[in-house]
């Protein structure tokens, strides 16, 4: 079809801007370092090779340093000797035919900027996430919702092609620019044959084989999108297996049977909870866990949907499997861990892997290993604490692939028999009991508040300073909640306080929330 | 050596008569310089013209063949001063830097140059860093042309127009004895396209030849009474000469119908955006043939009253399309109309926004609004009464996080600011000023270090008010690029001379990194044409600063923290300066990665480090991220119903810089991090030892595993 025919054809259909038809406007929104420039180059070369006039622009500048970056290409059919089309240098809202977003939030950004409109835009987006710093630094869960962007994209785009093109590229030994180019070809949004796309990659010259593989895989994905309906739904997965000596297995089966007898919503979390505490200590500890849970269930009932017990099953397990040196040493010296790391690091048989761990024990951790009474006495004595700090408090880098360091950790990891007599254990048990009692004391008067108080255990995490900060936030939330337990909305406030505590490191949001409570309590 | 190599592209610079060049705007400008017999070129890197400097550096062989001298100037002032060669000698010279900041730095030399006037064509190529993607304050270089009276070209943003502007610029400069500034916007610098090339030309007089026949004329020196004569000369002779040249050579262009009730006056650089708006309004076609008359100012200073008034003849209303503020052109054109007693109504910033970029939407809205009011009959019915019903698209502004630029994966500056954040946890918040360069990213989360930046090389100077000291010392940060740009004189001699009590941290990453990794005085690389390997500490000692600490491994967070603490607490009087040196990771990887791959292929021993996180040990507090922000250190949601918060996770882009392990240690964070060094081609002994250890370790592991329950999916 000649340009003229295209024009008259489109005129006949009453296109919004008939005199412009023929121009294809394509924008790319990428994160710096994703190879947006390479992709732009391929598209440009492709268009020229197919007898189109093409123009590309980019706004690199400092944005190439991990920031969001826009690339823009316009192309139109062109015969040699004809005047060159006048192209725009930047995409305009409502005026983009093909939008390629190399990351999910960048897809969201392209929608915000108006580059995706239902009348014309084919949106090709990679669903993977490259988290922004603001999402990562939150002490809680600050990750933005991809689902919201997906939902908006379904409305905003004329056609929406989405897949994890990053994973697709990696799986084919290439980078995302190649898979996005494949998706563009597969989408059929450009009037060029597949071979021309591949020729552009070959002309580029670098990493051709990998690029072509990723291109091909993405082409198929975009051309024949997997049917959402036939995709397997989140079927309940069978519980991962347990193995071990027969004697232990028999005892495990008894405990597992106790869990199986629990109401379904509780059992759902009690089983992983049981696994966690048994893995942390032993089967007897697992039985103690189920006993604790039973105490909670005695105060709970089906009318409330067992919400309290369900939450307790989760947080009691977390509280009982606290992070001490023994646990860390145990986890760090397991065979499966070594296998996992070798796989992650793609260590080949001919390679040797060296493994360095970063420990920084303080007097608190050392004293925590001491017998409870002696430990408590030492902890109360600043002189002893200073002495222990002098001896132990420094960064230690342990090469767990070497015998000596491995043996050290292996021995510490084997101190599980000792653990229950340690100061740390006594402290953790004390805290656990106080927290649980406190929460349960509200069950009769305000069930929801009891649930929220149980959930506050989420605040306690991390090591050393972080752990101390978590504890202090936990205490502040409980204290602030205590002032308003009589209120009907106490549970809601407790939830708000907890969420505020997870917003920032220094507890500024929490302080604000507490001030609000003080203003009316 | 710069981040991007143009060795391949440089070959295009050899194209001759009647051939077609296809490529980026920047490269086209370089080619045009060669075609127009330039005798010397220089400049200072900075977006968006960094690549122009890089192209010139990579093209040095070709330049030498043609007898052209290339300088990578110390700063923009030095670059502008170089144009002094064109004052007396009939040699064409060109320098380049970014606007408006580069022009700020160069303004002293530019003002003197403009006063003296030139004999050979002098061209200042300014990459106007304005609008989206800009990294500087939003101002216009235009004002400098007005105040010093040199001419300003703003060509249409396509390769034929831009390269023609280079030719026109030299000729205009020579015809009017005035330097000419050629302004190219961010996108024009990176726009791709084609143009017909001509043969390269050697300069008529080379700078070498000029040295054999030195010239001087005191009438050109900016001293009274000659300086008064220069001012008169500008107005009486140079200006009219420029006007004549611009008019006779038709540098400005008129498009569209001869008669129409309205017309648009357009900066050349705005042309494509205007055409696009007209296309969308149904008033222009694919090739820019327009129903609305356009007067395109490829020369935005000086403006020609006669030409403008001719364009206005027979029109009721004129719309001036001028990006940025203040609206210098609009004011001048208004004056022309007023003086001519014209009844033509002039519109501009009353319709367009005063501030900000003229994006596609702004153009469409403003031109549409103007035409609806001034000439509704021109518009197609669909535009006059649009009939659209758009579905409501959900608002994502609260969902999508901002993504400002930041430190790259493995950046050596990250641990410096991690250390500084740790020090501030001990001392409380400090007064910290910053400079220009990558280190300025520390002002953003997660570090939030540094509250002000006053310009390149001015970080420590920006703390001068606090030089007297107080309860806690002021701290300033400056990069190695800023140090050599003018930091040594403006910041450090200022500190030394005034006996400052302050602390200055010089971030030495071996390059002018933010502008693309160009070599500077203290670069460690061998550079055949530049003097490198001059330690910053030596310069500091030379100006009498004695408290200098050199840290050769910035990744040692503990040491960085200790040195900072020492600088803040020492009793030594005078400035306390820390030089923190580690190579820019972007450049290091580019240099070392191919070497490592080659070594692996050749069977030599190579250690490849990478970090990882034990997800069972990580508790999901993200304290490590608040001391890092590294792109490769991210989060992962675990498939574990007992866990609420995502845990830290390191992806395969990790370069094993060491920051994660260091902060985990220095800040006593947690033991989740590990470093895995994969040894390629280990020695026979090493491999044997590893096998032996693995056997012993494996035996211990299986022994313990046999005595306990193992849960799949854990550790």
Protein described:
With 521 residues, chain A is an alpha/beta fold. Chain A is 55% helix and 10% strand. Chain A folds into four domains: 3-223, Pyruvate-ferredoxin oxidoreductase, PFOR, domain III (Pyruvate-ferredoxin Oxidoreductase, domain 3, 3-Layer(aba) Sandwich); 244-321; 325-421, no CATH class; 422-521, no CATH class. A six-stranded mixed sheet of chain A has the order 2-3-1-4-5-6, with helices on both faces. In chain A, strands 8-9 form a two-stranded antiparallel ribbon. With 715 residues, chain B is an alpha/beta fold. Chain B is built from 24 helices and 24 strands. A seven-stranded mixed sheet of chain B has the order 3-2-4-5-7-6-12, with helices on both faces. Chain B has a five-stranded mixed sheet with strand order 9-11-10-13-14, with helices on both faces. Chains A and B meet through strand 2, strand 3, helix 3, helix 4 and helix 5 of A and helix 10, helix 13, helix 16, strand 20 and strand 21 of B.
Overall body shape of chain B = globular
- Largest interface, chains and sizes: A-B, 146 and 130 residues
Helix percent band of chain B: 25-40%
Let me know the largest β-sheet of chain B.
7 strands, mixed
Which architecture name of the largest domain in chain A does CATH use? Answer: 3-Layer(aba) Sandwich
Helical coverage of chain A, percent range: 40-55%
Please give a handful of descriptors for the protein shown.
heterodimer, A: Pyruvate-ferredoxin Oxidoreductase, domain 3, 6-stranded mixed sheet, two-stranded antiparallel ribbon, 25 helices, 9 strands, 10% strand, B: 715 residues, alpha/beta, Rossmann fold, 4 domains, 5-stranded mixed sheet, 24 helices, 37% helix, 16% strand
Quick description:
The complex is a heterodimer of chains A (521) and B (715). With 521 residues, chain A is α/β, with parallel strands linked by helices.
């Amino acid at each position: 079809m000649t340009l003229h025919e295209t024009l008259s054809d489109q005129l006949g259909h009453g296109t919004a801007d008939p005199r412009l038809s023929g121009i294809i406007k394509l924008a790319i929104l990428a994160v710096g370092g994703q190879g947006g420039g390479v992709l732009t180059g391929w598209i440009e070369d492709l268009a020229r090779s197919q007898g189109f006039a093409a123009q590309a622009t980019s706004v690199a500048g400092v944005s190439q340093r991990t920031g969001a970056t826009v690339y823009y290409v316009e192309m139109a059919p062109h015969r040699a000797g004809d005047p060159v089309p006048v192209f725009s240098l930047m995409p305009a809202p409502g005026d983009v035919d093909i939008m390629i977003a190399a990351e999910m939030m960048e897809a969201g950004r392209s929608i915000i900027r108006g580059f995706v409109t239902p009348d014309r835009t084919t949106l090709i987006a990679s669903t993977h996430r490259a988290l922004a710093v603001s999402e990562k630094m939150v002490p809680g869960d600050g990750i933005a919702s991809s689902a919201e962007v997906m939902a908006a994209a379904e409305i905003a785009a004329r056609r929406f092609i989405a897949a994890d093109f990053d994973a697709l590229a990696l799986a084919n030994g290439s980078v995302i620019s190649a898979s996005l180019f494949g998706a563009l070809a597969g989408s059929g949004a450009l009037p060029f044959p597949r071979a021309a796309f591949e020729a552009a990659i070959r002309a580029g010259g670098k990493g051709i084989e990998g690029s072509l593989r990723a291109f091909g895989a993405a082409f198929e994905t975009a051309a024949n999108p997997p049917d959402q309906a036939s995709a397997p739904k989140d079927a309940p997965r069978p519980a991962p297996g347990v193995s071990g000596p027969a004697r232990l297995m028999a005892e495990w089966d008894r405990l597992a049977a106790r869990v199986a007898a629990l109401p379904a919503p509780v059992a759902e979390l009690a089983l992983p909870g049981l696994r966690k505490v048994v893995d942390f200590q032993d089967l007897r500890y697992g039985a103690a866990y189920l006993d604790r849970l039973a105490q909670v269930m005695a105060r709970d009932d089906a009318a409330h949907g067992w919400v309290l017990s369900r939450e307790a099953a989760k947080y009691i397990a977390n509280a009982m499997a606290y992070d001490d040196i023994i646990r860390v040493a145990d986890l760090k010296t397991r065979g499966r861990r070594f296998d996992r790391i070798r796989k992650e690091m793609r260590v080949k048989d001919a390679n040797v892997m060296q493994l360095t761990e970063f420990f920084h024990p303080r007097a608190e951790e050392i004293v925590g290993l001491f017998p409870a009474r002696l430990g408590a006495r030492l902890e109360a004595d600043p002189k002893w604490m200073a002495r222990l700090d002098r001896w132990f408090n420094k960064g230690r880098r342990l090469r767990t692939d070497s015998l000596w360091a491995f043996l050290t950790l292996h021995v510490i990891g084997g101190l599980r028999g000792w653990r229950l007599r340690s100061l740390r254990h006594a402290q953790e048990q004390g805290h656990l009991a106080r927290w649980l009692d406190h929460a349960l004391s509200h069950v009769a008067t305000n069930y929801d508040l009891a649930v929220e108080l149980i959930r506050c255990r989420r605040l306690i995490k991390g090591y050393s300073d972080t752990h101390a900060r978590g504890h202090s936030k936990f205490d502040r939330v409980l204290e602030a909640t205590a002032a308003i337990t009589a209120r009907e909305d106490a549970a809601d406030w407790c939830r708000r306080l907890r969420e505020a505590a997870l917003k920032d490191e220094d507890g500024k949001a929490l302080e604000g929330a507490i001030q609000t409570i003080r203003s009316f309590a | 050596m710069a981040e991007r190599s143009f060795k391949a592209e440089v070959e295009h610079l050899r194209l001759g008569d009647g051939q077609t060049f296809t490529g980026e705007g920047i490269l086209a400008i370089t080619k045009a310089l060669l075609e127009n017999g330039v005798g010397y070129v220089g400049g200072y890197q900075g977006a968006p013209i960094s690549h122009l400097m890089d192209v010139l550096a990579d093209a040095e062989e070709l330049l030498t063949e043609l007898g052209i001298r290339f300088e990578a100037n110390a700063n923009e002032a030095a670059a502008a001063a170089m144009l002094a060669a064109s004052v007396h000698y009939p040699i064409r010279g060109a320098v380049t830097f970014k606007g408006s900041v580069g022009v700020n730095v160069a303004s002293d030399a530019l003002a003197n140059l403009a006063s003296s006037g030139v004999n050979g064509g002098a061209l200042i190529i300014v990459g106007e860093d304005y609008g989206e993607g800009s990294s500087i304050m939003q101002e216009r270089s235009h004002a400098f042309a007005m105040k010093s009276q040199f001419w300003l070209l703003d060509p249409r943003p396509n390769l034929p127009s831009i390269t023609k502007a280079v030719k026109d610029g030299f000729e205009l400069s020579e015809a009017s004895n005035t330097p000419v500034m050629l302004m190219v916007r961010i996108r024009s610098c990176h726009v791709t396209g084609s143009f017909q090339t001509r043969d390269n030309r050697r300069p008529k007089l080379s700078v070498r030849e000029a040295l054999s026949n030195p010239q001087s004329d005191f009438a050109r020196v900016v001293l009274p009474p000659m300086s008064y004569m220069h001012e008169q000369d500008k107005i009486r002779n140079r200006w009219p000469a420029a006007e004549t040249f611009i008019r006779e050579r038709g540098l400005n262009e008129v498009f569209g119908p001869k008669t129409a009730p309205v017309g648009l006056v357009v900066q050349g650089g705005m042309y494509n955006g205007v055409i696009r708006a007209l296309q969308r309004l149904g008033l222009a076609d694919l090739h820019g043939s327009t129903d609305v008359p356009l007067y395109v100012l490829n020369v935005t200073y000086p403006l020609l009253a006669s030409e403008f008034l001719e364009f206005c003849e027979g029109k009721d209303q004129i719309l001036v399309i001028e990006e940025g503020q203040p609206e210098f052109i609009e004011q001048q054109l208004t004056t022309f109309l007023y003086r001519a007693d014209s009844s033509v109504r002039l519109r501009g910033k009353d319709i367009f926004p005063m501030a900000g970029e003229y994006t596609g939407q702004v153009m469409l809205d403003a031109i549409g609004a103007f035409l609806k009011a001034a000439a509704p009959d021109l518009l197609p019915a669909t535009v006059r009464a649009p009939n659209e019903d758009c579905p409501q698209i959900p608002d994502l502004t609260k969902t999508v996080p901002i993504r400002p630029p930041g430190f790259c994966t493995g950046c050596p500056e990250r641990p410096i600011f991690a250390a500084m954040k740790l020090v501030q946890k001990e001392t409380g918040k400090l007064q910290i000023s910053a400079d220009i360069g990558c280190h300025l990213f520390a002002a953003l989360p997660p570090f939030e270090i540094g509250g002000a930046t006053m310009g390149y090389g001015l970080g420590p100077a920006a703390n001068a008010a606090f030089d007297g000291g107080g309860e806690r010392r002021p701290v300033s940060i400056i990069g190695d690029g800023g140090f050599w740009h003018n930091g040594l004189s403006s910041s450090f001699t200022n500190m030394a001379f005034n006996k400052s009590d302050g602390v200055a941290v010089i971030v030495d990453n071996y390059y002018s990194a933010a502008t693309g990794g160009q070599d500077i005085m203290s670069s460690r690389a061998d550079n055949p044409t530049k003097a490198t390997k001059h330690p910053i500490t030596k310069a500091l000692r030379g100006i009498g600063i004695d408290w200098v600490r050199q840290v050769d491994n910035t990744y040692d967070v503990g040491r960085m923290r200790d040195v900072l603490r020492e600088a803040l607490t020492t009793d030594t009087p005078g400035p306390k300066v820390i030089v923190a040196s580690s190579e820019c990771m972007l450049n290091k990887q580019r240099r070392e990665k191919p070497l490592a791959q080659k070594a692996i292929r050749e069977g030599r021993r190579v250690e490849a480090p990478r970090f990882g996180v034990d997800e069972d040990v990580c508790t999901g507090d993200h304290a490590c991220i608040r001391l890092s922000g590294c792109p490769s250190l991210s989060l992962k949601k675990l498939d574990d119903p007992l866990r609420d918060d995502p845990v830290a996770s390191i992806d395969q882009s990790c370069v094993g810089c060491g920051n994660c392990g260091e902060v985990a240690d220095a800040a006593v964070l947690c033991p989740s991090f590990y470093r895995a060094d994969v040894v390629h081609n280990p020695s026979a002994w090493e491999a044997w030892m590893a096998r032996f250890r693995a056997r012993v370790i494996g035996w211990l592991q299986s022994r313990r595993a046999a005595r306990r329950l193992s849960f799949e999916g854990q550790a």
